[in-house]
Amino acid sequence: MTSDKFTRAQALELDKNDDLAAFRDRFYVQPGVLYFDGNSLGLLSKSAEAAIQQAVEAWKSFAVDGWTHGPDPWFHLPEKLGTLTASLIGAHPYEVSVSGSTTSNLHALLATFYRPSGSRTKILADSENFPSDLYAMHSHLALHNRPETDLILIGPDATGLISEDDIVSAMTDDVAVVVLPSVWYKSGQLVDMERLTKEAHRRGIVIGFDLAHSIGVIGHHVHDIGVDFAIWCNYKYVSAGPGATAGLYVHESHHDLAPGLAGWFGSDKERQFNMEFPLAPAASARKWQLGTPPILSTVAIGASLELIQEAGIAAIRAKSLNQTTFLRQLLEHFVIEAGLGGQIRTPREDDHRGGHIAFEHEDAVQLGKALRDVGVVPDFRPPVTLRFAPVPLYTSYQDIWDAVMVIRDLLQNGRHRQYSRERDVVS
């Protein structure tokens, strides 16, 4: 293998031929910073900033009348944004709502779909899911006085990944609900949602997915494949800001159900201000909304979704696959095969890979700190994973090249070892 197998010129040529390259100028990309943490918090776009400023001006000018007046009235915002989101996940507009947080939405949907009875008392999930989802599932067992053993967690196999065969094998007659991520947050492994949905339904099991690590970078077809419910955040690849209001989807076949947790924003809009009791719920997924949405954390979602729609989710996915392949090739060539340690946990195959690369190294904590100090921003996940997420709307191939060269240089000269092995409180 020659040293010129990969060159910086190749990265520049890839950028030259990138149909999405112009979108980078529509984001605030800090000079001197190589940002690879968009799967934790996406960068601010200029259109998202304008949307937030517009909402502040509406608050200033209209006060409470901002709910029904101004350039973008707030009262119907969750429905409007749900409609914009629907095309990204392959749902009908009335199956989607922008509401709450990922965890609160999971609570609301588990309160509806997890009703243990007879032999069906268990929740099937996996040990590698994001902890907040697991905390929510565990709490619903407690609410129903079910033992902790009713939460079945599938662990990784010998490859360090979750086997879909193991998940299917665990879909036994005592399982009531399955909750899985579309992409595992640490490894970047992409699940076959269609296969698992079919297998769950064959056994009479309800199945839901957390789309937090796929929405905005991978297209879905949740309605057509029959997914029962889904949840997601809007601050990663959607880039709608820290703590942006989340989203939920419920297949239309379940719209006859009453929400297990109810709140006044789940009302039929025409009757909401009748203030009547009991709840007159919306005849759609909007019935699973709870309280009043935080408008300043919601308004940027529309601008962000419009950017994604302009670029096209298929084009975004294609570039994401190309960029994660390029990143993998460079890490393998310049770091792993050069004897500098580490391995890549993320599956190589396109149909099993999400939007980021999980690079495992025994010095991951120290290396992550050293990288940030020189302007390269990944994130760390214990015990030894650094995640690198090239976001197609603003990450260039040159960024990827430059980041890997910094990683190589730090590991070669050992400068990362001057940093503590204690992880930061927020990593």
Largest sheet: 7 strands, mixed
Number of helices: 12
Distance between the termini: 36 Å
Unreliable stretches (pLDDT < 50, length at least 5) are none
Shape designation = globular
What proportion of the residues is helical, as a percent range? Answer: 25-40%
> What's the overall average pLDDT, rounded?
97
N to C succession of SSEs: HEHHEHEHEHEHEHEEHHEEHEEEH
Tell me the strand percentage band: 5-15%
What does this protein look like?
This protein is of the alpha/beta class and 427 residues long. It is built from twelve helices and 13 strands. A seven-stranded mixed sheet has the order 2-8-7-6-5-3-4, sandwiched between helices. Strand 3, helix 5 and strand 4 (151-154) form a beta-alpha-beta unit. The longest helix has 24 residues, at 313-336. It starts with 7 loop residues before the first helix and ends in a 14-residue tail after the last helix.
Brief rundown of the structure:
The protein is α/β, with parallel strands linked by helices and 427 residues long. The protein has helices at 8-16, 46-62, 77-89, 102-113, 131-143, 164-169, 193-202, 222-225, 299-311, 313-336, 364-373, 397-413; strands at 34-35, 96-98, 122-126, 151-154, 175-181, 206-210, 229-232, 247-250, 343-344, 357-360, 376-377, 379-381, 385-388. The longest helix has 24 residues, at 313-336.
